[in-house]
Design goal:
The mean pLDDT is 95. This protein has 339 residues and is α+β, with helices and mostly antiparallel strands. 24% of the residues lie in helices and 29% in strands. The strands form 2 sheets. Strands 1, 2, 3, 4, 5, 6, 7 and 17 form an 8-stranded antiparallel β-sheet that branches. Strands 8-9-10-11-14-15 form a 6-stranded mixed beta barrel.
């Protein structure tokens, strides 16, 4: 199998154009017309489109890996398909049927399989998008929609190895409100985090920890990742109460922690004070996988977690997850599918 002549070791976690992408559109009745693979490049869209004017859009983040079995594999792709459909329904867009979603991902990756990095040197990041592309002036759903999938080879999220993050708890901004769209992978959720993130980085922090908008005693998420707190043999993560994204890495870590490490896992209201005194704290997501948190600043006081080192449980969970994703470790859960 031919592989692109790229400098894989220099790849960052940023856009690296591939050969082609997929585009499909709806008809006047909201049904999906057959899509097609087109050259990777810019798209044309109405200035009155629903996505540009009212943020009617969602996305997913997926990776394709070149595995130890010399094949290209996906991790829990059906869960991305389910979440994509649920997010679409929340912002009133016609869902992409699960099989069409999966078949399209396979088609795009197959067309760009030589852009999948060698094992251990990155992944092919897959970005499905669904947006209101038709023109609309009043605040209402768009009349037509576009489903786009593009891919980009990416290197490890952390160059030079995983290092504990230095995070800032904010009471000045909230990521999402209860009963809002925090549990959908909607584009607006991420634009809301950009300004607080910029302020935090200007002060030397990597990211922001957001608190629950209804009760600021409880933590919710990092800007684009789920949070976990370990005390003894109990692993806690904020419960899914409508304002937290149901992360696929999150649900996988909960299963691994219980079944493989024998931990007691709890999806619950996680108090900030409890997290600040935890044995280990980490975050999870498609990009970061499992990443330790070493320092947390709150109210001008800095709290050091596990001596600012990756904890044993965090490391075990990360190794278990990446081992399954690259087929270095047997997949006992049926999470891996191949191209």
């Amino acid at each position: 199998m031919k592989i692109q002549n790229l400098d894989w070791d220099q790849l960052g976690f940023n856009v690296n154009p591939s050969r082609s992408m997929f585009i499909a559109e709806t008809d006047e009745d909201g049904n999906w017309k057959p899509g097609k693979i087109v050259p990777y490049g810019n798209i044309s869209i109405s200035p009155a489109s629903g996505v540009l004017n009212y943020g009617q859009g969602i996305f997913e983040g997926i990776k394709a890996f070149r595995s130890a079995k010399d094949r290209i594999v996906f991790f829990r792709l059906e869960e991305n398909a389910k979440r994509f459909a649920a997010s679409a329904a929340r912002v009133v867009m016609p869902p992409v049927p699960q099989q069409l979603f999966i078949d399209t991902i396979h088609e795009v990756v197959k067309a760009n399989e030589d852009y999948v990095p060698p094992i251990g040197r990155g992944a092919l990041y897959i970005r499905p998008l669904l947006c209101g592309s038709g023109p609309v002036l009043g605040v209402s759903p768009a009349p037509s929609y576009s489903f786009i999938v593009f891919v980009s080879p990416v290197g490890p999220y952390f160059k030079g190895g995983v290092k504990p993050l230095n995070l800032l708890v904010t009471k000045d901004y909230h990521r999402a409100a209860p009963k809002g769209i925090g549990n959908a992978k909607a584009i607006g959720n991420y634009s809301a985090s950009l300004y607080p993130q910029r302020l935090a980085k200007a002060r030397g922090y990597d990211e922001v920890i957001y608190l629950n908008a209804a009760n600021e005693k409880f933590v919710e998420e990092v800007g684009s990742a789920n949070l976990f707190s370990l005390k003894g043999k109990v692993l806690k993560t904020p419960r899914l109460a409508g304002s937290i994204l149901p992360g696929i890495t999150r649900m996988s870590v909960l299963r691994l922690a219980k079944d493989k490490l024998g931990l007691k896992v709890e999806e619950t209201d996680l108090e900030l004070e409890e997290m600040l005194t935890a044995d280990e704290v980490f975050c999870t997501g498609t990009a970061v996988v499992v990443c330790p948190i070493g320092r947390i600043a709150f109210d001008a006081e800095e709290h050091v977690i596990n001596q600012n080192k990756m904890g044993e449980v965090t490391r075990e969970l990360r190794n278990l997850l990446t081992g399954i994703q690259t087929e270095r470790t047997p997949d006992e859960f049926g999470w891996i599918t191949s191209l």
